[in-house]
Amino acid sequence: MTPPILELVAASKTFRIRNIFGGEKSVAALQQVSLKLDEGRALAIVGESGSGKSTLGRAATGLFPLSSGQVLFRGRDIATIRGRKARLKHRRAVQMIFQDPFSALNPAHTVRHHLERPLRLHHGLSGVALGERVAGIVAEAELDPNHTLDKYPHELSGGQRQRVNLARVLAVGAELVVADEPTSMLDVSIRRSMLELIARLKTQRGLSLLYITHDIATAHYIAEETAVMFGGRIVEWGPSREVIARPAHPYTKVLLSAVPNASERLDGDSAAAAAFAVEVARVRGMAKEEIGQWTEVSPGHYAAV
Ligand SMILES: Nc1ncnc2c1ncn2[C@@H]1O[C@H](COP(=O)(O)OP(=O)(O)O)[C@@H](O)[C@H]1O
Ligand SMILES: [Mg+2]
């Protein structure tokens, strides 16, 4: 049996924060998180700001060492990867796309440079073959070559920049992509088309995706499965549509109630809205100890209730 492309085994990460008086505080950003992602599939990680989604994503790429637990890539603990070549290979195979489409682009270089560089460096391409590959990747990312290749990042729109980031990930030859809220800084009008592009690339390229979003309602566009994070833990996990249709954990229900049309419905009824506000406050204030036992609420759908 082939191992999952990504597996986290009881992964925990505690950050120590020093204050200006020299005191220390620790934040348990990730607590005993276990998950599996099979090749060619997508898992959405949803939760509010501060719930630990980015920490999970960065941990999955090996950007920092865990406090405890393991990250396995194709069955191998990434902490045991030794040697420059093997590390480079892993760094290429696992790529991140960030919320801020500017962050991974070098303002001093054109789009062409961003795409040619990894193709030369990692794939040994040059001349006509290089030009053809760049053109192919640009088309895959749905960028207009005549209006983007010789432009600098600041000359492009946010959506175009994020498409360049996607193209760059393809040029590097990523196998697993961690996309950390890739549409949240984009214009509302183009979010949908960006999600559709990511979904299409996943299918066409057989990419595996960890798709981080605070928007539980649209996670199913991309991801077959959804995991809900609350306070550094996963509290619910299952097929995306099942999690939305039949949320089992109180926190998942709160997240779903924050979806625009759900709250619109509540607005008309002030008693219901007040009761809802109380419930939200209760769930957000829940102590870690109140998070229940893992239970399979329906086939393949788990919740800590
Ligand atoms: N590098 C860091 N140093 C200290 N604390 C951090 C660091 N990164 C994240 N945290 C803390 O960990 C918690 C989870 O953060 P994060 O993973 O960014 O959540 P999310 O992406 O869901 O908003 C937060 O309390 C945050 O302040
Ligand atoms: Mg984040």
What key phrases describe this protein's structure?
binds adenosine-5'-diphosphate, four-stranded antiparallel β-sheet, eight-stranded mixed β-sheet, binds magnesium ion, alpha/beta, 11 helices, transport
Question: How would you characterize the overall build of this protein?
Answer:
The structure is a single chain. The chain is α/β, with parallel strands linked by helices and 305 residues long. It has a single domain, classed as Rossmann fold. The chain contains eleven helices and twelve strands. The protein has helices spanning 53-61, 84-93, 111-123, 127-140, 145-148, 158-172, 188-205, 240-245, 250-257, 260-267, 270-284, and strands at 6-18, 24-37, 42-46, 68-73, 76-77, 94-97, 176-180, 208-213, 225-230, 233-239, 294-298, 301-304. The strands form two sheets. The protein has an eight-stranded mixed β-sheet, with helices on both faces. A hairpin with a 5-residue loop joins strand 1 and strand 2. Helix 3 crosses helix 4 (127-140). It is globular, with a radius of gyration of 21 Å. The two termini are 32 Å apart. The relative contact order is 0.14. The model is unreliable at 262-266 (pLDDT under 50). Bound molecules: adenosine-5'-diphosphate and magnesium ion.
